[in-house]
Amino acid sequence: MTASQYLLSDQQMKQYLAAGCLPLKSSLPAEVHQRIYQRTDEVFAQSGNPGNNLLPFVPEIKKVFDDPVVVGALTSVLGPDYVMHSHRHPHINPIGSDGGGWHKDSYWGFRKVRSHRTRWAMIFYYPQDTSLENGPTAVMSGTHCFEKRAASEAEEHHLPLVGEAGSMALVHFDLWHRAMPNQADYTRYMMKFQFTRMQEPSAPTWNAQGGTWQPEDGSFMSARHWDWHCGGGIVGGDTVGEGNGRAVDALAAELADEDPVVRLRASSALGFKGAEATAAIEALAGALRDEKEPVRLNAAYALSAMGATAIAPLREALDDEMEEAQLAAAHGLAQAGWVAVPALLEALQSDGEPARGYAAFALGDMGSTAGDDAVQAVARLAQDPSEWVRRSAVEALGTMESSPQDAVPALSTLLADEDGQTRYEAAYALARFGAQAADAVPALIAALNDDDNRYVGAHSATALRRIGTPEANGALLDYLSAAQWCSMTTKESTF
Hints:
Blueprint: H1 10-19, E1 21-25, H2 30-47, H3 54-57, H4 61-66, H5 68-78, E2 82-93, E3 120-125, E4 137-140, E5 158-160, E6 167-172, E7 177-179, E8 188-197, H6 220-229, H7 248-254, H8 260-273, H9 281-287, H10 293-304, H11 311-317, H12 323-336, H13 341-347, H14 353-366, H15 372-379, H16 387-399, H17 404-414, H18 420-433, H19 441-447, H20 454-467, H21 470-481
Antiparallel strand pairs: 1-6, 2-8, 3-6, 3-8, 4-5, 4-7
Helix pairs in contact: 7-8, 8-10, 9-10, 10-12, 11-12, 12-14, 13-14, 14-16, 16-17, 16-18, 17-18, 18-20, 19-20, 20-21
């Protein structure tokens, strides 16, 4: 069986986009998972948690990620040109544990704007049977676009990930999750591996049958993410949706309702109406400051579908005193596409740090839609006095996918930035350019042995592999010759 036979269906893609999680089952025989469990147990007993060295210590795991089931799922959501991230982690849930707290995984940086689009994804893998009794990982379905948890448990949708050995889950990187208590008499392991997209989508990469999607729950945000994965990018504000048959003025009035569910539904419905709902722009602009994050974000997405007339209130919100409004506006401007580019280029020159940083994020989130002028403008932020702005700029340069003659020199310079997170992002951004980043090889070689941030070297290695010149390959082989390689080494056996 080949990976193409395991590409996700339209229904599976919709489930992933709505919930942020999709269960999978390995096609490998049971003895493979049994061996992985046994070997993992041995490694933990002999050396403790191997962390990023999990693959050298338990090389059988590579079979799991070469499984056509996994390759097909990752290809579907990340495209065929994805890479395994250098951070991987075996999570142990020992007998009698109380589990863990709800959290989102870190990007190993600070103030990173989490993208709603699938540029990062995770695979959670169980090498043993996992039931409610032995402490599975639980996810909070549908929370991958939200920075904060719901105010009450009643508003949260907890989904324990259970299944027999070889069960997995494809998980959006930003989904809230936790370990549940282990009340069984054996240890539960969960192997978490991260994967990242190297190219922006230009067409569906799953087994797509065509067509648009209006989710049953009325989520305009999910529908926009579907469009992006289909290769439609950002429509430029010319959307005219089906709406729900209700008058625009009635929906606009509901944005002031006491019930947040009513406000949420109204903002989504206005988004589906698109350019037909421009009369609601003022009400939606007010909703950018709503106390509920889902309402704020859906209002921003709705504004993004209404064309050039809705750009001004989104741009103004980048300077709002309320940080949450700034963030919502940034997502809206990113979704708006080319009609927002002039406003964002102006924001890059703002005296306000939030406006510059969020503008860089929004332009990067557009991908190639932003254009070469935007790349040049973002590249100039390589000298910005704010670490956060530089981080936002360097990540944007990696996703805009154009003008390498401007992006690559800026990224090469940022490989030597004083901020470790900026160097980390610069190396990974260069990896996305592949052969077009050949001029960065000397800077990448120098970054291989970064003493302060281990991921700078790891990402530089990824970039060199993708560049593939003789100079790049030679440096990469030298680097790997000193890397962790022996799976049999223990504190008792060092020879």
